[in-house]
Amino acid sequence: MTGADRGHWSTDWDSCCFGQAGDWAFLLHHDTPPGARARREGLAGMGVSETVHLSACSAKAIYTLDYLRDGHRIDDDGIIELIHYDRGRTPYVHGGRLDFLNRAIRRAELDHPGTTDEFSLYFHALETSLGLRLPRRDFQEGTVRAAMWAPGGGG
Questions:
Q1: Residue 85's closest CA among 114, 120, 132?
Q2: pTM of the predicted model as reported, rounded to 2 decimal places
Q3: I want to staple 127 with a disulfide (CB 3.0 to 4.6 A). Which of 80, 117, 132, 140 is the partner?
Q4: First to last CA, the chain
């Protein structure tokens, strides 16, 4: 299928949304052009002490969390892939560096007993435990700022 055959879809993969909520800045994108990722040194130079990179493979329902604080990855054994977790059981190592997420997930389960979707509970736990406040209303109303990646990928 050529770009002309896909109509507007050919640019969807090149777009991103961005903004700020509280102390967090966010960038949402479908795909990242080569060389477009910010380097840790550059972020540290701007005073950025925490980054959360979430990626998803919707066809497989796999979510990946990469959390860095003060230039160090916070994990228990590499990049974390969450395919699913069983309600009431912790997806991360008890007592490990991500145990705070276990507690946040359990809190989300208790606070939202009617929610059966584990991914909804997981993302609620991420937001509350890390202080993320993505502007859902802005996304729903279409008022989030958007941009197109510059040609050439910015390597």
A1: 120
A2: 0.67
A3: 132
A4: 27
